């Protein structure tokens, strides 16, 4: 792995704003107890000293989303920089295709342990992230954050080409491909390409015949979750649209 790592002789210190996806992976900045200011009577020197500390703490609070990060580890394949070995190693796997973390339940492998942990919840049904407004639960923290925007109406992600706004980063990425025509996900069987990984996965089932979504009432199986949902309505007497299995 050392062949992938280049330690720069001069470390670059850069100040940056963490992206939305990274905020929940970083520990919040906490107040330093040494910044406590006594409420007792102070001398002039003490007041000046306290004022300096207070201003310093205020500046820290104002810029609490800013961090100093020393990126001294570089990927030799693409040149991207990282501050921690674990982040670099995980990134390198996007080039090598290595997936060293297998699921004990279904055997599916992942390049990052966090992705394995999230996948495991699809088997256990665990949804530890709950919306305080409506109570809906999610298996991923970023899905909860995106869901909360459906209550607030916030759409902070803008397309630079047409100005359309989105609440989810993936929705923005998919939208951008409608401008670029990019279809990065290709079927290894027939070569057909797709702009979304979900559409590729559904397409692959047309080759394998896999139908992973089963009706608990009658046992009928489907290749798409949307088709299963439509089918369930036939049991509940709700209007349904016909769907090919």
Features of this protein?
245 residues, alpha+beta, Double Stranded RNA Binding Domain, globular
Give structural notes.
This protein has helices spanning 20-23, 44-62, 85-96, 113-124, 141-152, 169-180, 197-208, 225-235; strands at 5-7, 13-17, 66-70, 73-75, 81-82, 101-102, 109-110, 129-130, 137-138, 157-158, 165-166, 185-186, 193-194, 213-214, 221-222. The chain has 245 residues and is of the alpha+beta class. Among the domains are: 80-126, Double Stranded RNA Binding Domain; 185-235, Double Stranded RNA Binding Domain, CATH 3.30.160. Strand 14 (213-214) and strand 15 (221-222) form a beta hairpin. The chain is globular, with a radius of gyration of 25 Å. Mean pLDDT is 74; it is low at 1-68.
Summarize the structure.
By secondary structure, this protein is an alpha+beta fold. The protein has helices spanning 20-23, 44-62, 85-96, 113-124, 141-152, 169-180, 197-208, 225-235, and strands at 5-7, 13-17, 66-70, 73-75, 81-82, 101-102, 109-110, 129-130, 137-138, 157-158, 165-166, 185-186, 193-194, 213-214, 221-222. Residues 25-57 are annotated as: Disordered.
Any chance you could write out the topology, listing elements then pairs?
Layout: E1 5-7, E2 13-17, H1 20-23, H2 44-62, E3 66-70, E4 73-75, E5 81-82, H3 85-96, E6 101-102, E7 109-110, H4 113-124, E8 129-130, E9 137-138, H5 141-152, E10 157-158, E11 165-166, H6 169-180, E12 185-186, E13 193-194, H7 197-208, E14 213-214, E15 221-222, H8 225-235
Antiparallel strand pairs: 1-4, 2-3, 4-5, 6-7, 8-9, 10-11, 12-13, 14-15
Helix content range of the residues, please? Answer: 25-40%
Structural class by helix and strand composition = alpha+beta
Work out the radius of gyration.
25 Å
Strand numbers in spatial order across the main sheet: 1-4-5
Mean pLDDT: 74
Distance between the termini: 46 Å
Q: Give start-end ranges of low-pLDDT stretches.
A: 1-68
The general outline is globular
What fold name stands as the CATH topology of one domain?
A: Double Stranded RNA Binding Domain
Tell me, what is the CATH class of one domain?
A: Alpha Beta
The helix count comes to 8
Total strands: 15
Main β-sheet, in a few words? Answer: 3 strands, antiparallel
* CATH architectural arrangement of one domain: 2-Layer Sandwich
Proportion of beta-strand residues: 15-25%
CATH homologous superfamily title of one domain: Classic Zinc Finger
């Amino acid at each position: 792995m050392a062949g992938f790592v280049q330690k720069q002789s001069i470390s670059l210190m850069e100040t940056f704003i963490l992206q939305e996806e990274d905020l929940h992976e970083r520990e919040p900045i906490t107040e330093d107890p040494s910044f406590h200011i006594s409420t007792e009577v102070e001398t002039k020197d003490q007041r000046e000293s306290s004022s300096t500390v207070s201003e310093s703490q205020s500046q820290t609070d104002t810029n609490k989303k800013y961090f100093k990060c020393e990126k001294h580890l570089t990927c030799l394949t693409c040149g991207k920089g990282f501050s921690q070995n674990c982040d670099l190693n995980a990134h390198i796997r996007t080039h090598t295709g290595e997936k060293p973390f297998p699921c004990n339940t279904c055997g599916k492998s992942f390049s990052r342990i966090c992705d394995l942990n999230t996948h495991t919840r699809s088997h256990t049904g665990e949804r530890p992230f709950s919306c305080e407004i409506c109570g809906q639960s999610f298996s991923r923290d970023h899905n909860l954050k995106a869901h909360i925007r459906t209550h607030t109406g916030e759409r902070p992600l803008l397309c630079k080409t047409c100005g359309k706004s989105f609440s989810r980063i993936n929705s923005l990425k998919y939208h951008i491909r409608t401008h670029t025509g990019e279809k990065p996900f290709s079927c290894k069987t027939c070569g057909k390409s797709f702009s979304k990984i979900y559409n590729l996965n559904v397409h692959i089932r047309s080759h394998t015949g896999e139908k992973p979504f089963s009706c608990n009432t009658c046992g009928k199986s489907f290749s798409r979750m949307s088709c299963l949902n439509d089918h369930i309505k036939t049991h509940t007497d709700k209007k349904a649209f016909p769907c090919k299995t």
